[in-house]
Amino acid sequence: MDSAWDTLLEMVSKTDVITINDEEARQLSGEYSLVKAAKKIHTMGPEFVIIKKGEHGALLFHQGKIFAIPALPLEEVYDPTGAGDTFAGGFASYLAKKEDFSFETMKSALIVGSAMASFTVEKFGTERLQEVKEVDMIGRIKSFKELTTFEVTV
To answer: How far is C-alpha 124 from the geometric centre of its chain's CA atoms?
Structure first.
């Protein structure tokens, strides 16, 4: 951001979906509040703004709607290197498979990307990802659902 600001703004203006971390969102927007940062980034071009918060999850912003997911609590975290890239890859591959870019599909893609990233941190490099089977992904997605679904009785 410091060395190619004008080029960055030009690229952001041509982007439909931007995935950045919280520090980058604050720097790009000049806003500390992530809600305000996302609104400002929307005005720069992207229709969807995804702000990753590392071990604290991620936020998806679109047309005044916000979807928040936690990071999956893990007992063992060995190395977070590559988790952001794995998140982006899982997110993008889910969208490519679905060929649907609605807010609901974006929400699901966020979960898939986060589930993939949760495997990455369990070992070094790509070791854990090479072991992941479909049943593992299904289980991880179920864990996200259990973590975030609840009923309130009043």
So the answer is: 21
- What residue numbers bound the domain in which 145 lies? 70-154
The contacts of residue 75 (CB under 8 Å, 6+ apart) are none
Q: By C-alpha distance, which of 67, 63, 23, 19 is closest to 43?
A: 63
Divide the 154 residues of the chain into consecutive groups of 10 and give the mean pLDDT of each group: 88 94 95 97 96 91 94 85 89 94 94 92 87 94 88 86
Catalytic positions, please? 85
45, two tokens: 């071009």
The SS3 call for residue 53 is coil
Domain identity same for 151 and 78? yes
- What's the distance, CA 13 to chain centroid? 20
Identity at 83, one-letter amino acid code: A
Distances (CA, A) of 68 to 38, 84, 108, 114: 13, 16, 11, 12
Q: Which two tokens stand for residue 140?
A: 């991880």
- Together in a domain, 138 and 125: yes
Taking the complete model, does pTM exceed 0.90, yes or no? no
